[in-house]
Here is the input.
Amino acid sequence: MKSFDLESFELVELDSIFILKNINTTIGFVRFNEKGEVEYIFVNPIFRKQGVANKLLQLVKQKTGKEIVLQEPISPLGSKLLRSLNEWK
Here is the structure.
């Protein structure tokens, strides 16, 4: 997995959403609540396997100060992310 550099992209923060984008497209976004529960996470397929989801989750953890919890239902890709998240802790 490549290391993803946030400095190359624009980070937009709304109430409980982080959106990572460039001039052409959305790279990814995450919606969360104040408990640190991730309600939805998306990474553009072109930017997958570069650490984008992990960076977004790190932002949520910094913002909420809580451990990350992925809400159900979890898609097959979400299950894979959950496994990598557990390794990341």
The two ends are 17 Å apart (CA to CA).
